[in-house]
TrEMBL record, chain A:
Residues 452-571 form the Glucose-methanol-choline oxidoreductase C-terminal domain. It comes from the Bacteria. The lineage of its organism: Bacteria, Pseudomonadati, Pseudomonadota, Alphaproteobacteria, Acetobacterales. InterPro entries: FAD-bd, FAD/NAD-bd_sf, GMC_OxRdtase_N, GMC_OxRtase_C. Pfam families: FAD_binding_3, GMC_oxred_C, GMC_oxred_N. This is GMC family oxidoreductase. Keywords: FAD, Flavoprotein, Oxidoreductase. The keyword Isomerase does not apply. It comes from Gluconobacter vitians. Belongs to the GMC oxidoreductase family. Residues 142-345 form the Glucose-methanol-choline oxidoreductase N-terminal domain. The keyword Oxidoreductase applies.
Amino acid sequence: MGKKHVDAIIVGAGWAGAILAKELTEAGLSVVMLERGAERTTQIEGAYPDSIDELRGAVRKRLFQNLSQSTVTIRNTMDQTALPYRQLSAFLPGEGVGGAGLHWSGVHFRVAPEDLRLRSSVVERYGEKFIPEGMNLQDYGVTYEDLEPFFDKAEKVFGTSGEAYKVQGKIVGNGNVFSPDRSSDFPLPVMKDTFSASIFRDAAKNAGYHPYALPAANASRQYTNTYGCQMGPCNFCGYCSGYDCYLYSKASPNVNILPALRQDPRFSLIPNAHVLRVDLDSTKTKATGVTYLDTKTRKETSLSADLVILGAFQFNNVHLMLVSGIGKPYDPVSNTGTVGRNFVYQTITSSRVWLPSSTYTNQFVGAGGAGVAIDDFNSMNFDHGPLGFVGGSPVWVNQAGMKPIAAATGAGGGGTPRWGSAYKDALINTYKHSLGIDAHGSNMAYRDVYLDLDPTWKDAYGQPLLRMTFTWKDNDIRMNQYVVSKIEPVARAMGATKMNLVHLNPGQPFDTRKYQTTHLGGGAIMGENPQTSALNRYLQSWDVSNVFVIGSNAFPQGMGYNPTGMVAALAYWAAHHIRTTYLKSPGPLVQA
Amino acid sequence: MELTLNRPLRRSFMKGLLGTTSFWMAAGSTQWAEALAAETAAQSYQPAFFDMKEYQFLEAASDRLFPSDHNSPGGKALGVAEFIDRQMQTPYGHGENWYMSGPFQQGPANLGYQLPFVPRDLYRKGIAGVETYARQHYGKEFAALAAVQQDEILTVLEGGSVQLGEIPGRVFFEQLRTNTLEGVFADPLYGGNRGLAGWVMLGFPGARADFMDWVNQEGAPYPIGPVSISGETA
């Protein structure tokens, strides 16, 4: 019996997969989407009150990757033995329909234009020698102007709330003065500032900075999107990150795209389908389909397809490329190969500010995407010349809804008690009267920071685990320390009675035990040169032209902004070129 | 707070329906049944995973980690031991979401947990280890010691200088501390946080989940007390 054939297979039911599925079915293709996790629908398991259960949600990690089946190994340096990431802690990939797009917070940025051409920008301003030895600083191969229509399109699908600065060349509002021109305004008005964000806004402004409201894919009003999918107004319940939004206010593939897709006869979604490999022909230059395992029946199935889209989580896309033999694995010693190269993260540190005991910050109130930020120290918005580092960091108050278990388990330490009555006193004070200020910064790529296959540990399907070699480097530590030093005067102006400024420190390696962020990037990056990028500027594999790899894996550097907005824009950008060019004449969109 | 009155009323209403079709229709969720069962059982809970000695250890230790004081009742009264016992019977207790494939090789602490033990193992071995330590150093089991002696033992475990058989004392301490705080602050559905006293202490409103009118009240405290998933208020 022959294999079942479809026009396109999409691996992963997150944002990237859902966007590509929508675009390709619109183009008339039959699409099968394979999701290794479970089906997830907001009206059932996301419903109130079960969904707002901290233990079941963020603590036992209902929506996250089940590591017992598959994980990664991690080491800091190439001379170490990498060990398995056995418990979810430093980063939290999603699993199930919606992927990380179901459990995210909803901060929905565009991009700082110069981050897309960071190497060129740094060289133009400071010369080639400014780039530290061993840093793989690269351009994306696309410009903000290329992507603008796709940022715009994504915002209208996500129902993004925000305040613009400039639309079609005209200053229209009190938005981010560093943000680039927009073809149209946000589809929804800006979210309200929480009390904590409002006092940060005032203090930052008085200090001469340029505060703006975070763009949020949390609906400030009822909204019906491009696809006829409906969102309800956010009520600041605080159950965004780690939860499926019971109010249909936070954008997710489940709420904003899949309801439209599920009605399309050309589309089918298969949950509990773990893709083992992309099948290639004997030349290794063409994919013939994929082979997946039904995780319930343990039965293997091969599907054939003309086009394969990898839309899994960042490192799962890289893993699939490596185990399938798509492209050449990166070797840091010979500095050859591209798959696994430029693995990046973000430098995120959270500082805490205590206000007088008469002032309540009500930290359980919040919206994941809302808050007030400054970009004065992000991207190329300040003079790096005298500072001697590359990169930057927005600073913000993003009160997203602090729950009691998270507050209690994280409290104490650093010389203060972690249990007992004195601990309880401090916990109460911190919960009621403090707020967090984050430096949410970039992370550059380095020759000896990369992804490859682990030689020892295997997943539940017998395949080698992906191995991460990652630690913090001097450039990024100094950038983080510089930006955090700018928080102190602002916090004083906010009326701080006490503060705990947290920054990275030299000699402290990446710690897998502490949650930092799930914003992993790179490993299969886009670019203009097949020697230094796995994908061309359309996110098409240089080596296997009917495979497109969509996600933050394409980022050559970790940027200061949250990645989802950029992932969505890249997904629509790639889909546009598949629809308008590739489908007419399948083959490489850029000649290597 | 006047809303406290709702609690016995709701409970007796639901109990009256218990086991009937109306109950299941009214409940609409197995969690209601679980919550009611937990409330009924709170006074006479029979541990299913731990034996009575182990259970007494959990009551005593959770009551030192989270002591009764002017801020709130302690871990024992809040039902932390019941919470942990019930967690041991969930996928979490069995470590079903942890990567537990070998080989198990120890490495730098910052590369994370590398022991071949799931939470059930950590408790069984860890409690036995603490009891051995308590008898050796104090001549009594942990639960029979004075609070100050119990605190000394917990301090030593936290400090990382003691090995409890196969389990580093620090690893056991962190497991116990984390689960104790979960038991204090999780929804009472899971057996802890009795009377919502953990949430009352922090001013956390529980399952209210609608703060449209309190996004910015210029630093005033939120005025309404907590409600649990089952509708209990405090």
